[in-house]
Amino acid sequence: MNPTPAPAEPPTLEDIAAAGARRLCDADRLKKSSDDLKEVVLAALREGHLKPTEVAKASGWTGAHVRKMAREAGIEPDERYKERADRLKKAQAGEDASDQA
Fold this sequence. Notes:
By secondary structure, the chain is mainly α. The protein has helices at about 15-45, 50-60, 65-70, 80-100. Helix 1 runs antiparallel to helix 2 (about 50-60).
């Protein structure tokens, strides 16, 4: 994003108010687009025809964020992925225990 060139005159209160209004409008649009994306991501996860990693990558969100949203929405991991996740948790727990020893 290119910075706005400095005006010849100092900004007025109206200039500041207008910039603040634009910011609020942009924040509202960002919130709506994030909410819309969340709905699409959760629908894809519920459907189950796409891999969760593909959904996360396509969304632009991290896998961890998508997993958190899914769990909060009551979407549990598919059995194929749950077994792998359990193995990783056990392996990580073993590494943590050996680090503390």
